[in-house]
Specification:
heterodimer; A: mainly beta; seven-stranded mixed β-sheet; B: mainly beta; five-stranded antiparallel β-sheet
Amino acid sequence: DAGITQSPRHKVTETGTPVTLRCHQTENHRYMYWYRQDPGHGLRLIHYSYGVKDTDKGEVSDGYSVSRSKTEDFLLTLESATSSQTSVYFCAISERRGGNQPQHFGDGTRLSIL
Amino acid sequence: GQNIDQPTEMTATEGAIVQINCTYQTSGFNGLFWYQQHAGEAPTFLSYNVLDGLEEKGRFSSFLSRSKGYSYLLLKELQMKDSASYLCAVSGYGQNFVFGPGTRLSVLP
Protein backbone atom coordinates (compact mmCIF):
# COMPACT_ATOMS: atom_id res chain seq x y z
CA ASP A 1 0.00 0.00 0.00
CA ALA A 2 1.12 3.52 -0.79
CA GLY A 3 2.36 5.31 2.33
CA ILE A 4 -0.25 8.02 2.69
CA THR A 5 -1.56 9.18 6.03
CA GLN A 6 -4.38 11.64 6.50
CA SER A 7 -5.13 13.37 9.77
CA PRO A 8 -7.48 13.74 11.45
CA ARG A 9 -9.65 10.85 10.27
CA HIS A 10 -12.80 12.41 11.68
CA LYS A 11 -13.62 15.95 12.72
CA VAL A 12 -16.72 17.79 13.83
CA THR A 13 -16.58 21.55 14.05
CA GLU A 14 -18.78 24.62 13.92
CA THR A 15 -19.52 27.03 11.09
CA GLY A 16 -17.01 29.87 10.91
CA THR A 17 -14.09 28.04 12.51
CA PRO A 18 -10.82 27.38 10.67
CA VAL A 19 -9.96 23.76 9.85
CA THR A 20 -6.72 22.25 8.58
CA LEU A 21 -6.40 18.75 7.19
CA ARG A 22 -3.03 17.12 6.76
CA CYS A 23 -1.76 14.64 4.20
CA HIS A 24 1.61 12.98 4.73
CA GLN A 25 3.32 10.68 2.20
CA THR A 26 6.42 8.52 2.43
CA GLU A 27 6.67 7.73 -1.32
CA ASN A 28 8.53 10.89 -2.35
CA HIS A 29 5.98 11.47 -5.14
CA ARG A 30 5.99 14.86 -6.80
CA TYR A 31 2.24 15.28 -7.22
CA MET A 32 -0.30 15.53 -4.42
CA TYR A 33 -4.03 16.19 -4.66
CA TRP A 34 -6.97 17.06 -2.45
CA TYR A 35 -10.43 15.80 -3.43
CA ARG A 36 -13.82 15.96 -1.84
CA GLN A 37 -16.38 13.21 -2.32
CA ASP A 38 -20.10 13.84 -2.05
CA PRO A 39 -23.05 11.63 -3.00
CA GLY A 40 -23.98 12.07 -6.64
CA HIS A 41 -20.82 14.03 -7.47
CA GLY A 42 -18.04 11.51 -7.21
CA LEU A 43 -14.52 12.74 -6.53
CA ARG A 44 -13.94 16.42 -7.30
CA LEU A 45 -10.51 18.02 -7.32
CA ILE A 46 -10.03 20.93 -4.90
CA HIS A 47 -6.32 21.78 -5.29
CA TYR A 48 -3.20 19.99 -6.34
CA SER A 49 0.55 20.42 -5.96
CA TYR A 50 3.34 19.70 -8.43
CA GLY A 51 6.21 20.39 -6.07
CA VAL A 52 7.26 22.22 -2.93
CA LYS A 53 5.50 25.59 -2.86
CA ASP A 54 3.92 24.85 -6.27
CA THR A 55 0.15 24.52 -6.15
CA ASP A 56 -2.80 25.14 -8.43
CA LYS A 57 -6.58 25.23 -8.26
CA GLY A 58 -8.90 22.40 -9.16
CA GLU A 59 -12.57 22.27 -10.03
CA VAL A 60 -13.99 23.27 -6.61
CA SER A 61 -11.33 25.47 -5.00
CA ASP A 62 -13.51 28.29 -3.62
CA GLY A 63 -13.27 28.46 0.18
CA TYR A 64 -10.12 26.31 0.35
CA SER A 65 -6.41 27.03 0.43
CA VAL A 66 -3.40 24.70 0.42
CA SER A 67 0.25 24.73 1.30
CA ARG A 68 3.17 22.44 0.61
CA SER A 69 6.34 23.38 2.47
CA LYS A 70 7.89 19.89 2.25
CA THR A 71 7.66 17.15 -0.35
CA GLU A 72 5.93 14.83 2.09
CA ASP A 73 3.25 17.16 3.47
CA PHE A 74 0.25 18.78 1.79
CA LEU A 75 -2.15 20.79 3.94
CA LEU A 76 -5.72 21.75 3.12
CA THR A 77 -7.22 24.70 5.01
CA LEU A 78 -10.80 25.87 5.29
CA GLU A 79 -10.35 29.43 6.51
CA SER A 80 -13.95 29.77 7.72
CA ALA A 81 -15.82 26.50 7.46
CA THR A 82 -19.37 26.41 6.09
CA SER A 83 -21.96 23.64 6.23
CA SER A 84 -21.58 23.11 2.46
CA GLN A 85 -18.02 21.93 3.14
CA THR A 86 -19.27 18.93 5.09
CA SER A 87 -17.82 16.07 3.07
CA VAL A 88 -15.29 13.28 2.94
CA TYR A 89 -11.87 14.58 1.92
CA PHE A 90 -9.30 12.38 0.21
CA CYS A 91 -5.65 13.06 -0.43
CA ALA A 92 -3.97 11.34 -3.38
CA ILE A 93 -0.43 11.13 -4.73
CA SER A 94 1.15 10.24 -8.07
CA GLU A 95 4.61 10.18 -9.63
CA ARG A 96 3.45 12.04 -12.74
CA ARG A 97 0.36 13.98 -13.75
CA GLY A 98 -1.89 12.24 -16.26
CA GLY A 99 -0.45 9.58 -18.48
CA ASN A 100 -0.35 6.00 -17.24
CA GLN A 101 0.40 6.78 -13.62
CA PRO A 102 -2.48 5.94 -11.27
CA GLN A 103 -3.21 8.11 -8.29
CA HIS A 104 -3.09 6.41 -4.89
CA PHE A 105 -5.41 7.57 -2.14
CA GLY A 106 -5.25 8.06 1.59
CA ASP A 107 -7.98 6.71 3.87
CA GLY A 108 -9.90 9.97 3.93
CA THR A 109 -11.09 12.51 6.49
CA ARG A 110 -14.76 12.71 7.36
CA LEU A 111 -15.50 16.36 8.15
CA SER A 112 -18.81 17.53 9.60
CA ILE A 113 -19.54 21.23 9.97
CA LEU A 114 -22.50 22.07 12.16
CA GLY B 1 -15.15 20.38 -21.20
CA GLN B 2 -15.17 16.87 -19.81
CA ASN B 3 -18.11 14.65 -18.96
CA ILE B 4 -18.11 11.10 -17.64
CA ASP B 5 -21.21 9.00 -17.15
CA GLN B 6 -21.79 5.73 -15.28
CA PRO B 7 -24.93 3.93 -14.06
CA THR B 8 -25.71 4.88 -10.47
CA GLU B 9 -26.47 1.42 -9.13
CA MET B 10 -26.32 -2.22 -10.24
CA THR B 11 -27.28 -5.47 -8.60
CA ALA B 12 -25.97 -8.95 -9.43
CA THR B 13 -25.91 -12.43 -7.95
CA GLU B 14 -22.95 -14.19 -6.40
CA GLY B 15 -21.10 -16.27 -9.00
CA ALA B 16 -22.49 -14.28 -11.94
CA ILE B 17 -20.81 -11.88 -14.38
CA VAL B 18 -21.50 -8.13 -14.37
CA GLN B 19 -20.46 -5.38 -16.78
CA ILE B 20 -20.17 -1.78 -15.55
CA ASN B 21 -20.15 0.81 -18.32
CA CYS B 22 -18.45 4.19 -18.49
CA THR B 23 -18.90 6.73 -21.29
CA TYR B 24 -16.80 9.85 -21.56
CA GLN B 25 -16.36 13.05 -23.54
CA THR B 26 -13.02 14.76 -23.00
CA SER B 27 -10.94 17.44 -24.65
CA GLY B 28 -7.83 15.26 -24.46
CA PHE B 29 -7.37 11.57 -23.71
CA ASN B 30 -4.37 9.70 -22.39
CA GLY B 31 -5.90 6.78 -20.58
CA LEU B 32 -8.80 5.52 -18.53
CA PHE B 33 -8.56 4.15 -15.00
CA TRP B 34 -10.90 1.99 -12.94
CA TYR B 35 -10.98 2.15 -9.16
CA GLN B 36 -12.80 0.10 -6.54
CA GLN B 37 -14.08 1.77 -3.39
CA HIS B 38 -15.63 -0.13 -0.49
CA ALA B 39 -17.98 1.85 1.74
CA GLY B 40 -16.06 4.08 4.12
CA GLU B 41 -12.70 3.29 2.53
CA ALA B 42 -10.28 4.82 0.03
CA PRO B 43 -10.50 4.17 -3.71
CA THR B 44 -8.00 1.53 -4.83
CA PHE B 45 -6.58 1.23 -8.34
CA LEU B 46 -7.88 -1.70 -10.44
CA SER B 47 -6.89 -1.19 -14.07
CA TYR B 48 -5.63 1.13 -16.78
CA ASN B 49 -6.44 1.22 -20.51
CA VAL B 50 -4.91 3.50 -23.10
CA LEU B 51 -5.23 1.37 -26.27
CA ASP B 52 -8.42 -0.11 -27.67
CA GLY B 53 -9.22 -3.60 -26.51
CA LEU B 54 -9.49 -5.77 -23.47
CA GLU B 55 -7.09 -5.90 -20.53
CA GLU B 56 -7.52 -8.92 -18.30
CA LYS B 57 -6.41 -9.16 -14.70
CA GLY B 58 -7.73 -12.22 -12.93
CA ARG B 59 -11.49 -12.02 -12.37
CA PHE B 60 -11.51 -8.40 -13.55
CA SER B 61 -11.19 -7.21 -17.15
CA SER B 62 -11.45 -3.71 -18.59
CA PHE B 63 -12.28 -2.75 -22.16
CA LEU B 64 -11.73 0.50 -24.04
CA SER B 65 -13.01 1.92 -27.33
CA ARG B 66 -11.47 5.35 -27.89
CA SER B 67 -13.52 6.08 -31.02
CA LYS B 68 -16.74 5.53 -29.09
CA GLY B 69 -15.61 7.15 -25.84
CA TYR B 70 -16.60 3.99 -24.04
CA SER B 71 -15.17 1.62 -21.48
CA TYR B 72 -16.46 -1.19 -19.35
CA LEU B 73 -15.30 -3.14 -16.35
CA LEU B 74 -16.18 -6.83 -16.39
CA LEU B 75 -16.30 -8.73 -13.12
CA LYS B 76 -16.51 -12.53 -13.34
CA GLU B 77 -17.38 -15.11 -10.70
CA LEU B 78 -18.81 -12.43 -8.45
CA GLN B 79 -18.12 -12.67 -4.75
CA MET B 80 -19.82 -10.91 -1.86
CA LYS B 81 -16.65 -8.90 -1.27
CA ASP B 82 -17.06 -7.32 -4.73
CA SER B 83 -19.93 -5.23 -3.34
CA ALA B 84 -18.46 -1.76 -3.67
CA SER B 85 -18.52 1.38 -5.77
CA TYR B 86 -16.58 1.34 -9.03
CA LEU B 87 -15.20 4.63 -10.33
CA CYS B 88 -13.89 5.35 -13.79
CA ALA B 89 -11.49 8.23 -14.32
CA VAL B 90 -10.08 9.75 -17.49
CA SER B 91 -6.66 11.39 -17.75
CA GLY B 92 -5.40 13.73 -20.44
CA TYR B 93 -1.90 14.71 -21.49
CA GLY B 94 -0.41 16.59 -18.56
CA GLN B 95 -3.87 17.00 -17.13
CA ASN B 96 -5.56 15.97 -13.94
CA PHE B 97 -7.93 13.05 -13.63
CA VAL B 98 -11.64 13.55 -14.10
CA PHE B 99 -13.71 11.04 -12.16
CA GLY B 100 -17.13 9.71 -13.01
CA PRO B 101 -19.87 9.64 -10.36
CA GLY B 102 -19.28 5.95 -9.61
CA THR B 103 -21.45 2.84 -9.83
CA ARG B 104 -22.56 1.16 -6.62
CA LEU B 105 -22.61 -2.63 -7.11
CA SER B 106 -24.52 -4.87 -4.74
CA VAL B 107 -23.79 -8.60 -4.91
CA LEU B 108 -26.61 -10.73 -3.53
CA PRO B 109 -26.31 -14.33 -2.31
